[in-house]
């Protein structure tokens, strides 16, 4: 009798919400939403624990990252292929440009938050590092959430 044989007769009740076919879209949405939430929660924590260290302009990185998430995930894969998008002035090419601009905004928010971290928080004596690290983590989590939601789905939810 091996170790694997010990667990043969254990039956766990199925979770009603996740039973059935392919749940890749549900998992991608849950993980993406959780990362987005954690990103904003981190910066809210940093701003509340160390008031005055997170300047109002620093929040623009998170706002731009959030707009990037919306832009990236508003373009479906069918629109990228040209299957479901024939209207507008640019068609599939416009959808690709919109997606590219969304990715550029996401990268820019991560790079800007990294620049703020190193310019204003790292290497300063008697400075608190957590607001800068929190700002950077916020934007990294938002960007990862947008990637998981865009590329983690097996098919488009909206079509």
UniProtKB/TrEMBL annotation:
One of its GO terms (cellular component) is membrane. PANTHER family: SMALL MEMBRANE PROTEIN-RELATED. Pfam families: UPF0220 (PF05255). It comes from Zophobas morio. The lineage of its organism: Eukaryota, Metazoa, Ecdysozoa, Arthropoda, Hexapoda. It is a multi-pass membrane protein. The chain crosses the membrane at residues 26-44, 56-76, 97-122, 128-149. This is Transmembrane protein 50A. InterPro entries: UPF0220.
